[in-house]
Amino acid sequence: MLETSGLHESCGVFGVYAPHEDVARITFFALFALQHRGQESAGIATADHGRIQVFARMGLVSQVFTEESLCNLHGDIAIGHNRYSTTGSSRIDNAQPIMVGNDGDTLALAHNGNIVNAEHLCQELGDRGYEFRTSTDSEVIANLIVSAPAHTWVDRIRHAMRRLQGAYSLVMMTNHSLFAVRDPLGVRPLCLGTIEGGWVVASESCALDHIGATFVREVEPGEIIRISGKGLESYREPVTRKALCIFEYIYFARPDSVINNRLLYSARLAMGEQLAGEYPVDADLVMGVPDSATAAGIGYAHRSNIPLGEGLLKNRYVGRTFIQPDQRIRDLGVKLKFNPLPQLLTDKRLIVVDDSIVRGTTTPSVVKLLRRAGAKEVHMRICAPPIRYPCFFGVDMATRWELIAARKSVPEIKDFIGADSLGYLSIEGLIKAIALPADTFCTACFTGEYPIPVQLEMDKLALEYQPKQPSPLGTKER
Fold first, then answer.
1. What value does the mean pLDDT take over residues 297-320?
2. Partners of 112 in the beta sheet?
């Protein structure tokens, strides 16, 4: 994706119930497969004979965990989390899983999504004496569950679900049970699988493949799953409509994941083919921006009968260091991420396929990079329709005034990015490529029609004002 500063993933969550298995190590490898969903922090919580402990730190999965830290996480149940912040800043206090409650009544939680009424609920809980160590809506969810006026965990979760507004795919753990919960809209994905001796739940099916688990089905919108020594129990809350985030298909999920029985690679291939049908142009070479638009580029080339090539090579390790670049390196900008191939591009008319344009801050630099490498023409083709409205359900996108398509027409955007032509896939073409009913998805970022009422300018740091108690680094126990 070109717009690296514009549209960011939400989070990755995982849970496993597998007595006599190394659940911490299983969770580590599952989080490794879900690293694309969040790179700010990673954490694992385990439950062992009634004791829950959490290990969470800033950084990538491979940086956070060592053999020693995994060997110290014992138990039959584990949950894990990769974080990209959508509510609350990027700091260790906000790393997940988070743990709330007291001895004998403790809950560990990992959350993917965003709660639009979190500020109101946080104030309500604060007035009742609940103190918050983080500035995340995830801790609001956890405390809402723990404080619910019910005796069983399932009833507590049900009570909280009736108060929560927004997106949440949750994996949670008590002393003896694993829970998986998906909001009634089903905004963020969550799937269920089996592994030798137990069960697993994950944001995407690719995580199941990596640990040798077998995909069973998706967790349904509005469903609560409890897994314990009694086996798997399922409870359903009423669902009025579905609103899966359509960007899971365009960009967020890995191409080897399956959502709603649709392989993401196949869907993206079809997006490229649809783009070629909607916006054909005479050209010499088609290239998909690596890696998110590679499949769409192949689809465009196939439909148009124009050769496919790699005009840009991607440095996949950019952004994976804590060392800050000096000004000279920072000024290189997009060159840090992509390197063109002049021998392939010189005097060529290019069709460049990408997944989206958000702010429009990076795409002009890429067009210039391709022209300097010798391209005669650059025709941009975008798999997502123009993004005119912000997301409030777990995607850190931009405020509306920052979205280029909210301020400029398509011809104006074409001129701004310096392309010879610009074509966005239509909403109808996008739905056709995914091959699922239109009412399955949330398309609010294109249309402004949100599945529930939202406050149109929400601040991801809205909960920062809450007084916090210090949270120690490393392993915490309860």
1. 89
2. 169
Where do we find the tokens 């809205």?
A: 462
What band does 453 get if pLDDT is binned at 50, 70 and 90? confident
| Residue-level pLDDT at 326 | 65
- Which of the four pLDDT bands, split at 50, 70 and 90, describes residue 335? confident
Q: Which of 11, 391, 442, 445 is catalytic?
A: 11
* 191 counts as catalytic: no
pLDDT in tens, 260-272: 999 999 999 999 9
Q: What is the pLDDT of residue 477?
A: 40
Higher pLDDT, 74 or 477: 74
For 14: left if phi > 0, alpha if psi spans -120 to 50, otherwise beta; the answer is beta
Q: Which residue, among 191, 211, 187, 182, has the nearest Cα to 261 in the 3D structure?
A: 191
Domain 262-315+325-436, CATH among 3.20.20.60, 3.40.50.920, 3.40.50.2020, 3.30.420.40: 3.40.50.2020
Cα 325 to the center of its chain, rounded Å: 26
- Specify whether the CB–CB gap between 381 and 429 falls below 8 A: no
Phi, psi of 313, deg, nearest 5: -105, 135
Using alpha carbons, select from 204, 205, 163, 158 the residue that is nearest to residue 179.
158
Long-range contacts of 149-158 (CB under 8 A, 24+ apart): 153/107, 153/177, 153/179, 153/226, 154/224, 154/226, 154/233, 154/235, 157/181, 157/224, 158/224, 158/235, 158/237
Rounded Cα–Cα distance for residues 310 and 297 (Å):
10
Against a cut of 0.70, is the pTM above it? yes
Mean residue pLDDT across the chain = 89
Whether 2 shows a pLDDT value over 80: the answer reads no
CATH topology for 12-240? Glutamine Phosphoribosylpyrophosphate, subunit 1, domain 1 (3.60.20)
Chain centroid to CA 439: 21
Q: Please confirm whether the linkage preceding 390 is cis (ω < 30° from 0).
A: no
